[in-house]
Amino acid sequence: MASFSFDIVSEIDKAEMNNVFMQAEKEIQGRYDFKGTSAGIDWLDDKKGLKLTGDNEWQVDAVLDIVRKKLAARGQSSKSLDLTKEKVTSNLKTTWEIPFKQGLDQAMAKRIAADIRTNAPKAKPQIQGDLVRVTSASKDELQKVISLVRENDYDTPLQFVNYR
């Protein structure tokens, strides 16, 4: 009997993130309410996240709103932004470093695997590093697992790859 599988991963599309960055940067430069201010967007080290700047907290939130709109327009999830870091205000300038969430941590992988075991007993999830591999004898069962995972609201963007 044939066995089918796919992997559940949490990755960002670097090309799409680059497009989001460039579009957001262009909109920030063109907005009238940002003229003559320090409002802007920049990359963190090695393109692992974004650094938002502004004259005050309101401007940084407005820049984040622009980034979220650009993410949505490009079909990317805003869940890929790790908003847990605090905004830093110094010298009349506010900055906010927002790293990207990438890879499944063990707690999230265990939660996903447990949900699959509970709701789809014919599918077998296995945690392999920062991904969860799901195998089953039935492609229909794998489709059921994909729809189940999409319905649950996990706090990280999930993709389904290597469907065989």
From TrEMBL:
Pfam families per UniProt: YajQ
Coiled coil: none
Matching InterPro entries: UPF0234-like_C (IPR035571), UPF0234_N (IPR035570), YajQ-like_sf (IPR036183), YajQ/Smlt4090-like (IPR007551)
Keyword Lipid metabolism: no
Molecular function as annotated in GO: nucleotide binding
Gene Ontology CC terms, in alphabetical order: cytosol
Entry keywords, A to Z: Nucleotide-binding
Highest taxon above the source species: Bacteria
PANTHER family: UPF0234 PROTEIN YAJQ
Family designation: Belongs to the YajQ family.
Physiological role: Nucleotide-binding protein.
Name the record gives this protein: Nucleotide-binding protein TM7x_02055
Gene source species: Candidatus Nanosynbacter lyticus
